[in-house]
């Protein structure tokens, strides 16, 4: 799974990326700091079943911190998009193609209203935050349309399946194409024959299906943020999830936590260093007062979890080989946390572990209920499952 962090320059994308990954993408107050896309690993969080089982777990593909299972997710810090990017403006459409392989998008807006669409710093509260969304939507749609047109030409006289193949790099499938053919009543025999307007509409609908978006309303420490978050909710609240976040506060807290200066649980923190410089204490107090007391948290983890579990509709299941001890064959308890699309069946879990396992699967067992589950039984979030096969 890959989540792309996109938005105009200077909205706080790299700060968010760093906060999520504690990586080292460069952060600076000028446009196009990120010359190359940065890839990193963030962690989605779910309550670990070890808590209800009353056993210690031994994570293998994930980690567990104080009862919270952290599941790795790839994130991509994409360089700032400006108007006309799909035509090569700014850093050009190379950045758009970096987004191609992503499963969803975190679109970062500057709720402090202190950066113009090109990323130039302006007086706080004066920028139109809605533009942060509009411009990106327009660029994404224009980019998809370009790709559609180019490939429709290549698919001229061929089947729609060939067109789907050409578009597979954008994670577009036949399901998506069948959907637009149905809703727009298009001719599936010849994609090249589609009217201009239909092509545009099809590209837009498929863009929305294949690159779902959540909005990160960043810089909520600003005095202008509340107003802009409301504005975003008013204009885009029906279409997108809007998450107020403080990326640089989250980054500061995670760093302080790493250095042992604070104990940060992802929501609240306690100072754990006895003699901390007064300046640091006052910075932390500010975060506490302006962000945590007001919003409950910096919003960063909630944003990521929302992407994975709501936007991408994933559940976490825990495969085991020994259903008595909830362990693998090495005796490791709840070693793996596997993300699956909500509605997945036990055979889908088998397939995700190994195609061989799916091929020789007989049935599965719910390890907690000690009950047999059929191959086509739908799994539920947090379920601990043993796959039984002939091999
Ligand atoms: N006030 C405030 N500034 C932030 C926040 N997050 C990032 N910034 C600042 O915004 C500027 C641009 O950040 P950066 O992450 O480089 O933006 P990018 O160009 O979108 O990657 C930097 O000066 C950051 O320190 C935040 O939550 N609050
Ligand atoms: Mg950046």
Describe this structure in words.
This protein is α/β, with parallel strands linked by helices and 391 residues long. The chain has a domain at 314-389: Ubiquitin-like (UB roll). Helix content is 37%, strand content 20%. It has helices spanning 13-21, 50-53, 94-99, 129-154, 160-166, 174-184, 196-210, 225-236, 247-258, 278-295, 300-311, 346-353, 355-359; strands at residues 2-6, 38-47, 63-65, 68-77, 104-110, 213-218, 241-244, 262-264, 269-271, 314-320, 338-341, 361-366, 371-373, 384-389. Strands 1, 2, 3, 4, 5, 6 and 7 form a 7-stranded mixed β-sheet that branches. A 5-stranded mixed β-sheet has the order 11-10-14-12-13. A two-stranded antiparallel sheet has the order 8-9. The longest helix has 26 residues, at 129-154. The structure holds guanosine-5'-diphosphate (GDP) and magnesium ion. Residues 7, 9-15, 27-29, 33-34, 80, 112, 218-219, 221-222, 246-249 line the site of guanosine-5'-diphosphate (GDP).
What is the level-2 CATH architecture name of the domain at 314-389?
A: Roll
Low-confidence blocks of residues: 26-33
Sequence of secondary-structure elements: EHEHEEHEHHHHEHEHEEHHEEHHEEE
Beta fraction: 15-25%
Number of strands: 14
Helicity range: 25-40%
Q: What's the CATH C level of the domain at 314-389?
A: Alpha Beta
Give the CATH H-level superfamily of the domain at 314-389. Beta-grasp domain
Radius of gyration: 23 Å
Quick overview of this protein structure:
This protein is an alpha/beta fold and 391 residues long. The chain has helices at 13-21, 50-53, 94-99, 129-154, 160-166, 174-184, 196-210, 225-236, 247-258, 278-295, 300-311, 346-353, 355-359; strands at 2-6, 38-47, 63-65, 68-77, 104-110, 213-218, 241-244, 262-264, 269-271, 314-320, 338-341, 361-366, 371-373, 384-389. Guanosine-5'-diphosphate binds at residues 7, 9-15, 27-29, 33-34, 80, 112, 218-219, 221-222, 246-249.
């Amino acid at each position: 799974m890959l989540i792309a962090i996109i938005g105009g320059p200077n909205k706080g994308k790299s700060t968010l990326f760093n906060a999520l990954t504690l990586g080292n993408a460069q952060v600076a107050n000028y446009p196009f700091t990120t010359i190359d896309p940065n890839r990193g690993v963030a962690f989605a969080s779910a309550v670990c079943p070890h808590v209800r089982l009353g056993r210690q777990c031994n994570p293998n593909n994930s980690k567990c911190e104080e009862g919270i299972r952290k599941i790795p997710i790839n994130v991509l810090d994409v360089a700032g998009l400006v108007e006309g990017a799909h035509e090569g403006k700014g850093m050009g459409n190379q950045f758009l193609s970096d987004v191609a392989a992503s499963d969803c998008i975190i679109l970062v807006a500057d709720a402090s209203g202190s950066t113009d669409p090109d990323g130039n710093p302006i007086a706080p509260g004066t920028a139109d935050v809605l533009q942060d969304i509009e411009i990106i939507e327009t660029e994404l749609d224009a980019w998809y349309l370009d790709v559609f047109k180019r490939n429709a030409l290549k698919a001229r006289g061929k089947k729609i399946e060939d067109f789907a193949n050409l578009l597979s790099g954008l994670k577009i499938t036949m399901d998506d194409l069948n959907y637009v053919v149905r809703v727009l009543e298009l001719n599936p025999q010849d994609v090249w024959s589609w009217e201009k307007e239909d092509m545009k509409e099809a590209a837009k609908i498929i863009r929305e299906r294949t690159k779902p978006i959540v909005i990160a309303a960043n810089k909520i420490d600003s005095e202008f943020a509340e107003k802009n978050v409301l504005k975003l909710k008013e204009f885009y609240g029906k279409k997108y999830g809007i998450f107020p976040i403080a990326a640089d506060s989250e980054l500061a807290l995670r760093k302080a936590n790493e250095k042992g200066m604070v104990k940060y649980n992802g929501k609240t923190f306690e100072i754990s260093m006895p003699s901390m410089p007064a300046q640091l204490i006052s910075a932390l107090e500010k975060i506490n007062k302006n962000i945590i007391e007001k919003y409950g948290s910096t919003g960063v983890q909630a944003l990521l979890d929302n992407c994975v579990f709501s936007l991408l509709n994933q559940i976490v299941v825990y495969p085991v080989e020994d259903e008595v001890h909830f362990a693998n064959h090495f005796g490791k308890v709840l070693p793996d946390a596997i993300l699956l699309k909500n509605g997945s069946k036990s055979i889908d879990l088998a397939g995700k572990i190994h195609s061989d396992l799916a091929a020789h699967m007989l049935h599965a067992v719910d390890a907690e209920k000690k009950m047999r589950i059929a191959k086509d039984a739908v799994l539920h979030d947090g379920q601990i499952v043993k796959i039984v096969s002939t091999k």
